[in-house]
Specification:
2 copies of one chain form a homodimer. Chain A has about 325 residues and is an alpha/beta fold. Chain A is built from 10 helices and 13 strands. The first copy, chain A, starts with a strand and ends in a 7-residue tail after the last helix.
């Protein structure tokens, strides 16, 4: 019988949970909103409650995997810090193991999503980087079929490579990180500038109609409706992303770069200018094959699936405890 | 008895050869200038002659390793392209194995230098990046004690990550590569601009005294003599290098970054502003330890030593042939 694990993906707005088989099949699902007070005790209660609910319906699960936004120490499973949640120094893994008696793993959300895409995506990729573009820019690096984390599990933060040292201030405190130029947050910033400069433009009008401030989502909607200003902002974001991805392929050479996160739902609007910039800045084009840039297979489900896969990988592996 | 291998390091100006023991001890050496006509047949004759000479004096050598500037396919040992030498599509490994009957390996010069620094440098580093700053910017990435090359051996080109997409044209054809801003070639460019702007400055005067054009070396000499303009150019180079290295540590997390190549001979003149910029642009400083930036242990000998070490690693390994 196929083994199953619970996979949980903690994001800024929701916690997605699933019971997943070794082949990636999702046999059960459960999603809860992230509480406004996202401190460690509140989040622990939520997580343990979700595990309990999923386990009662699926008593055979053998392990629990968690993917979380933020800086996660590996293999200890301590979440040190997260840009968009209140939890700090949260010993998630130890708490889950103690409360459930099941082996658990905790890793960065993009790392586990990368594992799902590399192992079970439309094409098998041994060397692959997943870049997720949402509120921020996250990444999972899979080398030789395994997640690369760095000596303490704190690496693989492609959103914070510097692509323009004189660029805008990033949420992390540095200037010109890829995330400061190529995330939903960047689109919110440039969209607000555009709306202020042209209050009759579609971006400003859409926000007024909905009675909200301009966000990356409003800009995306305007771009999908063909607004030239929104399209230009979108193309600028995609160009920065392509430049960052060119550097990533120069460093790693890769079988593929996979793009995930909410912004990729716009399809070719993002991918076409992204691929163009990645090709323009690719190194030694005459001798190095251009690395394909593909949309993700699992979309927003990649995190919970990958978390469960990682849990199954390590369920019998005492070296990670 | 310790096994020995021949290590050869092919550079733009010289080919350095050595007979090296497993512990890194150099027991014999031989250096030849790179011929002006550095095409494949000329270079093959030179290499085979050097191997022959070293082998006659050291008949016990069990393998040959070659490090070469340029894009080298692994494990086939085909040198596809080099920015500063004329050879193209040169099947070095096959030629050496056929002519000598010894097992051979051929890899990028900074890759093998990185192996020597990681394994036998002053401190043992399991996860380390070597950045070599000379005419260009090269790099060797060592992860888990092994050279990371990418799926076809064409990765690890940190000199060509994009640090300023509107920056100067690089020798590779792209704009704003780290190499275009932080190499000896970059120093030549900025030094010539400074000399043209101020013909009475020390940079211009040193070049006139020696009856040569301004080069990176002239700028370095002026900086070591305390010339404020030359020091500023040097600091700018070091700052770009630090920015690139910050991105590298954001991606890999590392035990250390080691700086090699001719420019590091200037010591703290380069390293102090480099470390400052690397710290300024480091990601998540509150939770991630700052990665130490160290000068290389072996200097220009790292290439030939690392080439021999790699040859000994693979002397009995049929999987690489």
């Amino acid at each position: 019988m196929a083994r199953h694990a619970i996979g949980l993906d903690i994001g800024g707005t929701k916690v997605a949970g699933a019971v997943v088989a070794e082949d990636g099949t999702v046999v059960d699902e459960l999603t809860e909103p992230t509480p406004a007070t996202s401190d460690a005790p509140t989040m622990s209660r939520l997580l343990l409650g979700m595990i309990d609910t999923l386990r009662r319906k699926n008593p055979g699960v053998v392990a629990v995997g968690v993917g979380a936004a933020g800086t996660v120490a590996w293999p200890s499973g301590q979440i040190l810090w997260a840009p968009n949640n209140a939890y700090r120094d949260w010993a998630v893994r130890a708490e889950i193991e103690e409360a459930t008696g099941l082996p658990a793993v905790v890793d960065n959300d993009a790392n586990v999503a990368g594992l799902a895409e590399a192992r079970l995506g439309d094409t098998l990729h041994k060397e692959m980087v997943l870049v997720t573009v949402g509120t921020g820019v996250g990444s999972g690096i899979v080398l030789g079929g395994r997640i690369y984390r760095g000596p303490h599990g704190l690496g693989a933060e492609l959103g914070h490579i510097i692509v323009d040292p004189n660029g805008p201030l990033c949420g992390c405190g540095n200037r010109g990180c890829l995330e400061s130029l190529a995330s939903g947050t960047a689109l919110t910033r440039t969209g607000r500038e555009a709306a202020a400069a042209n209050p009759d433009g579609l971006i400003a009008r859409l926000a007024r109609e909905k009675n909200v401030e301009v966000t990356g989502q409003i800009v995306t909607e305007a771009a999908l409706q063909g607004d030239p200003t929104a399209r230009r902002l979108f193309q600028t974001l995609a160009r920065w992303l392509g430049i960052g991805i060119a550097s990533v392929t120069t460093i790693f050479e890769l079988d593929a770069v996979v793009i995930g996160g909410g912004v990729v739902d716009t399809g070719e609007l993002l991918l076409a200018p992204l691929r163009e910039a990645a090709a323009e800045f690719a190194y030694a084009k005459s001798v190095r094959p251009l690395v394909p840039v593909l949309p993700s297979t699992f979309g927003s489900a990649a995190g919970k699936i990958g978390a469960a896969l990682l849990a199954l990988d390590h369920a019998d592996d005492r070296s990670t405890r």
